[in-house]
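Fold it.
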Amino acid sequence: MQTLTFRFYRELNDFLPNALKQRSFNREFTALGSIKDAIESVGIPHTEVDLILVNGESVDFTFIPQNGDRVSVYPLFESLDVTSLTRLRPHPLRQTAFILDCHLGRLARYLRLLGFDALFYGHCPDERLVEISLHQHRILLTRDLNLLKRKVLTHAYYVRSTRPIKQAEEVVRRLQLQNSFQPFSRCTVCNGLLSTVDKQVVWAQLPENSRRRFDEYARCNECGRVYWQGSHYERMQRLVKDLRES
């Protein structure tokens, strides 16, 4: 048997049992492969990892550890400058385009409300989600740990919260998106971009009450849905403010 000593930091502890959180612990292996395989065998998806130190030296996922090595594993850094070390992705994780799995439909709507490009399909095979994430350079958001362990995935995030509004707060905070909001610029239904449109052009689509009360409108370039600053608008503004301050 060969032994590695692990220490996982910050949010990576979310994936560990309580007895192993915030502490160093040993894990035995019959044979040692790559450090990536060793980390995932503990239950940590590689997409959550941004820096690995083995005996204090920065390594990448292909590194082969040796018996007795001490492994320190860190999540996405929010402020610490680690550019001189071995980063594990060719591009930053903080991309502002997303693909969400079938359990995160309401989160997709919140992200679109904030102006983020957020694709969501009610039924989409895991293979297709991964393909879209890779080819369109989108962060895959999911609550499926097995999906996160797909080897080809490079940009993905495990959403911890179960309530949609809390999920939105978590994603905004964790990926530092507060300064990237472009609220009310996307259709919350289909993800299309909105454009200002003359009232007369969309007259037939408007309820009688809205025709009388409002003069400014926007229309989705994809599905044609029309938006105006109705009674819900003030509530949505407060929501955007709360998420920016989350």
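The first strand starts at residue 2 and ends at 8.
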